[in-house]
Amino acid sequence: MKNKRPTNSFLVDVFLLIFLLLFFVTAVFMSLNGRSVLINAFYLGITAFLILLTYFLGLTTGLIINLLFVVFQGGLLTYLAVFQKRVDVATGDLAFWLFMPLLLSMSFYGMAYYGLQLQAENRRLKDELVHQSVLDSETNLRTLVAYLRDTQIFTKTAAKYQLPLSMMTIKIRYFNEIRRILDHDQLDALVRLVSRVILSSDEGLTLAYLLSRDNLTWGALLFVDAAEARETARKIKTKFAQELPKVISLHDIDISLVIGVAEYDPKKMKDGHDLEHAATHMIQYDVGNDDVAKKY
Predict the structure, then answer these.
(1) Of 181, 208, 220, 230, which is most buried, counting CB atoms within 10 Å of its CB?
(2) Residues 240-273: pLDDT tens digits?
(3) Are 263 and 165 in contact (CB under 8 A)?
(4) Residue 255 contacts residue 217 (beta carbons within 8 Å)
């Protein structure tokens, strides 16, 4: 995969240069052939139409349509040269437009195709970089990758020294509905607010994580039992409700947190995934009276 991106970039440049060269040749031909302005304008329109068909319908369909045009144009040239004795027209204006639409269509399609491939590769590399990162650049919270690494250590420590270890999974209540009414800036403000509230908690919280940006999920590991972790969750909710009205872009939106808590059980849980899934599963039971966590 390492060689794919330079290859795509190189091919985009090559097809772009070919397309520009062909377009330049076409422009020069039309400027020097002023006696057939209408014919050239007509074929230029057909060429643009064939380019669009090739781009939107795909290479195979576009190639077939262009070849049909070449056959038609070749038949027209043969008719003019043999039956109408118009050799000057057949070998001049119309001959130029025999293959030029095909060449322009193929070069434009190649440029567009490899350009899209390059964009897809860039997105893939960006997603891969984000996935492999252990620290979220905007919130300074550790990521899912870091969480899985950390839990390998913490679960072993908890089991060895018989320490309680709990996991909190934190989400926005009715996030799918709320996301529809938030713009990009408001969403960023919400992410920063929740992250700041979690980081400001000193209730035995060991490490905090931003587990997912797509579905806005935070996590936290605590060396306490489930009961103490639930108390910490309640305080985080209260703190969030107090801080929400202070954010101007969010003060008129009813937003609250839902938090699931699970305690690590070495007999039932193999790794960090199991612990995180257990905490996420407990979110469905966070349906109590959240008046303290609501914005009035």
Answers:
(1) 220
(2) 999 999 999 998 899 999 999 999 998 899 889 9
(3) yes
(4) no
